[in-house]
Design goal:
Strand content: 25-35%
Distance between the termini: 37 Å
Structural class: mainly beta
Largest sheet: 22 strands, parallel
Shape: globular
Number of strands: 44
Length: about 575
């Protein structure tokens, strides 16, 4: 592997020499070198630095290694320098601070180390500075916050391990400030409220404490506010009504308390709201009907009560609705929405029938861990993932599920289902995970015709007859649980042909006959050998691009597995 990597590096370096050669034959005449994502590699060619009239140098998204050459200080005419997305290491050369005409500097997504050189504070023409996703350490030079023309500053994904500096008040031109996951701790400095041009503020994934400063709500041009994954306390101020241009509000995974202020409805441009994983409480009605652009609403893992407000049914642009893990109750309304793709209502207190919902774009429905008693036929032709485990479902709807063409994951375990498993359900070609365990299902297990099957759970039922045929055709099979049923007969020889890593649990049944060494490897027969159930993680299908004028923000939820 090491030899192969070395060969690839040599090829990349040779490609770089061949491509650059025509441009560097007359270095004095070369003003632009723009080679984004060209598969170039090796050390940065030092001949580049003979082109002293160079104004734009773009070598981003390649495979360059080693350190940034000190000779870069010779490029006095340089206005744009983009080396992002390579494998550069070592320190940022102090000589970059001598490139007095530089307006754009992006060294992000490398492996650069040590402190940010204070010489960068001499780049008074600089408008964009991105040093994110490196291994830089603190403290951040205070003079960096005095660059008079700086419009965008991103230092995310480093290891500064410091408090926020009040020197930030001098970023008078700043519009986008990103300090995510860079080791900040202590309170959010209120001087940020003086950055009147600010449109995007990201302070996520730090160790910030205390309340959200009231001063932030004076930033009337703010369109993106991301403070998730910190330790912020207190309530959400009604002053948020002043942020009338706000499009993205991400405050999840903090320790916020109180109710959602009704004043939030003044932020009529909101597209993405995530207040999940806090300690918020009260009723959630009276807000969402005033937000016509709303696309993502996540209020999960709080202490909200009451019923699902009718106004949510009128949010026509809604793509994702997450009300999971609260104390909400009543019946689930019959949603009708042509855009809704994901609906999370698990771990609440919803009762009664899951009504017919007309959701033509829905891909994921999770109503697990409630008190639902019946499942109605859904008008959801694209549904791929269905979680309904741990309810009180007892009506016969498994045959209905077989008609859903795109289903890949079905979990209806731990309900009160009776009757036989319809053969049509086990002919679903797209199924990867099926959980029917801990019900009262009876009869024989139908033949398996699910070539993409990974996991199958049929344990703790009243199933009878032999092990079904077909497991040997499941090329990706990982785990099957047939335990605690009334299965009988011998173990079919075909089972020896299932994938080598697959396991089948058959304990607490009535099988007989001799078994081969290969069968011993496959089957879990002794209770002491029973593995931990390898239930696959619930992967949220989020990542929906929300266009915020010239800004893009991707809502990415953490994997919160309700089945763990």
């Amino acid at each position: 592997l090491g030899v192969l990597m070395q060969f690839e590096e040599q090829e990349q370096a040779e490609l770089c020499r061949r491509i650059l050669a025509p441009y560097l034959r007359c270095p004095d005449q070369c003003t632009r070198l723009e080679f984004t994502e060209q598969g170039l590699g090796g050390n940065i060619n030092k001949d580049i630095f003979k082109a002293t009239n160079l104004q734009r140098l773009q070598l981003d998204k390649n495979y360059f290694t080693g350190s940034i050459p000190l000779a870069i200080r010779r490029l006095k005419e340089l206005q744009l320098l983009d080396l992002a997305g390579n494998k550069l290491s070592g320190p940022i050369p102090t000589g970059i601070g001598n490139l007095s005409k530089l307006e754009y500097l992006d060294l992000s997504n490398n492996q650069l180390e040590y402190k940010i050189p204070s010489s960068l504070a001499k780049l008074t023409e600089l408008k964009t500075l991105s040093l994110s996703e490196n291994q830089l350490v603190g403290p951040i030079p205070k003079d960096l916050f005095r660059l008079p023309n700086l419009v965008a500053l991103s230092l995310s994904g480093n290891k500064f391990d410091c408090k926020m500096s009040d020197e930030m008040m001098h970023l008078s031109s700043i519009q986008s400030l990103s300090l995510e996951n860079c080791g900040l701790y202590g309170p959010i400095t209120p001087v940020l409220g003086q950055l009147s041009a600010l449109t995007a503020l990201t302070l996520a994934r730090n160790e910030l404490t205390g309340e959200i400063p009231q001063e932030l709500f004076a930033l009337d041009k703010l369109r993106v506010l991301v403070l998730k994954d910190n330790k912020l306390t207190g309530s959400i101020s009604p002053l948020i009504a002043q942020l009338t241009d706000l499009e993205v509000l991400i405050l999840n995974n903090n320790q916020l308390t109180g109710e959602i202020p009704a004043a939030l409805r003044a932020c009529t441009k909101l597209q993405n709201v995530d207040l999940g994983e806090n300690q918020l409480s009260g009723d959630i009605s009276g807000i969402w009907g005033f937000l016509p652009e709303l696309q993502v609403l996540a209020l999960d893992n709080n202490q909200f009560e009451g019923e699902i407000p009718e106004e949510l049914l009128d949010c026509a642009n809604l793509l994702v609705l997450n009300l999971a893990e609260n104390g909400m109750e009543g019946t689930i309304p019959a949603f009708e929405n042509r855009n809704l793709q994901q609906l999370f209502l698990y771990r609440n207190k919803f009762t009664g029938v899951l009504p017919t919902m007309r959701l033509p774009a829905l891909r994921l429905l999770n109503v697990a861990y409630n008190q639902l008693t019946e499942f109605s036929t859904q008008e959801t032709p694209l549904l791929a993932t269905l979680y309904m485990e741990n309810n009180l479902l007892h009506n016969h709807f498994l045959e209905d599920l077989a008609t859903y063409e795109h289903l890949e994951i079905i979990n209806v375990g731990s309900n009160q289902l009776t009757g036989e498993i319809p053969a049509s359900l086990f002919r679903k070609q797209n199924i990867t995970v099926m959980n029917l365990e801990n019900n009262n299902l009876s009869g024989v297990i139908p033949p398996i015709d699910m070539p993409n099957l990974y996991y199958l759970y049929l344990g703790i039922n009243e199933l009878s007859g032999p092990i079904p045929a077909g497991f040997e055709r499941c090329e990706n099979l990982n785990y099957v649980d047939l335990s605690s049923n009334n299965l009988t007969g011998t173990i079919p020889a075909e089972v020896e042909n299932i994938p080598a890593a697959a396991k089948i649990n058959i304990e607490q049944n009535s099988f007989y006959g001799t078994i081969s060494p290969r069968i011993t490897e496959i089957f879990t027969i002794d209770e002491q050998l029973k593995p931990h159930k390898p239930w696959p993680p619930l992967v949220y299908l989020l990542g929906i691009p929300l266009v915020c004028s010239s800004l893009y923000y991707y809502y990415q939820s953490n994997s919160k597995n309700p089945n763990a």
